[in-house]
Amino acid sequence: MVTLPTPGRKADIMKKSVLVVFGGQSSEHIVSCMSAINVIKNIDTERYDVTLIGITEEGKWLLVDSVEQIEDESWRKNTTTAILSPDATEKSVIVLKDGKAEMIRIDVVFPVLHGLWGEDGTIQGIFELAKIPYVGCGVLASSVSMDKVYTKQIVDHTGVRQAAYELVIRKELEKMDEVVARIENRFAYPVFIKPSNAGSSRGVSKASDREELIAGLKEAAHHDRKILVEETIVGREIECAVFGNGTEPVIASGVGEILAA
Questions:
Q1: Domain 148-231 maps to which CATH number in 3.40.50.2300, 3.40.120.10, 3.20.70.20, 3.30.1490.20?
Q2: In sequence order, what E strands does 56-136 have?
Q3: pLDDT 10s digits, 180-229
Q4: Could you tell me the pTM of the whole model?
Q5: Does 10 have pLDDT greater than 50?
Q6: Distance between terminal CA atoms of the chain?
Q7: Do residues 209 and 189 touch, judged by C-beta distance below 8 A?
Q8: Which of 25, 130, 236, 243 is the most exposed place for a label (fewest CB within 10 A)?
Q9: Phi, psi of 226 (to 5 degrees)
């Protein structure tokens, strides 16, 4: 199961080995699987050998044979365990099958995981221990940007303008009238309610009155103990992606705009 040179190529020219990790234990498990299908189908297999690991919602790591298994969801029935070795001298995946352990060399990891335990720096820490390069942000950036409250607190210190917000802790909802009064004293409706640690719009709602605010707070509390309530800003949504690893010149994408359908 060790990556070998592609037939017909010179022996000293080996394809790079890419590990794609998808699934995970967050509420965005299905979204991750859909993203993985798109990523895998766009990897040039003439240049890269691809190994697939799916993490079930229960947290089991499984070797996946093909993208078709992800599409028909049969990968969850697989029985071959595959885990990334944290040993920095190995840089490999350990496959456990029939009482035997085999190694697959890994050159780079492409984590296609969404939400908690995927984008929050947790799994990035494993990659750092293994000293295997990986796609995406590092541990600190992943951890901070996953938590919307911490992100906004850091942005506050940089002086960048942003939407005003109110932090609500789940336990405070036991005194819902006080929470609602606090929010209404600060903001006019509509307001937006979000779990601090979630993505793909999970648990996000817009409240135009008190009844919707209470419902939105309860929904967000199902996803996280920290809840973010933000004022409404009417305007255009402009985005720009920036790529860099600290050693090469930073590359910025073109400017894009989100338009409502």
A1: 3.30.1490.20
A2: 61-64, 81-84, 92-97, 100-105, 108-113
A3: 999 999 999 999 999 999 876 889 999 999 999 999 999 999 999 999 99
A4: 0.82
A5: no
A6: 47
A7: yes
A8: 236
A9: -105, 130
Domain boundaries, the chain: 16-146, 148-231
Amino acid at 59: G
Q: Using the predicted structure, report yes or no on whether residue 254 has a pLDDT greater than 70.
A: yes
The tokens for 167 are 């932090």
pLDDT tens for each residue of 148-177: 999 999 999 999 999 999 999 999 999 999
Q: According to the model, what pLDDT value does residue 13 have?
A: 54
Instruction: Provide the CATH number for the domain formed by 16-146 in this structure.
Output: 3.40.50.20
Other CB atoms within a 10 A radius of the CB of residue 222 amount to 12
Q: How far apart are CA 252 and CA 241, in angstroms?
A: 6
Identify which of 114, 137, 119 has the alpha carbon closest to the alpha carbon of residue 32: 114
Residues 6+ apart with CB under 8 A from 159: none
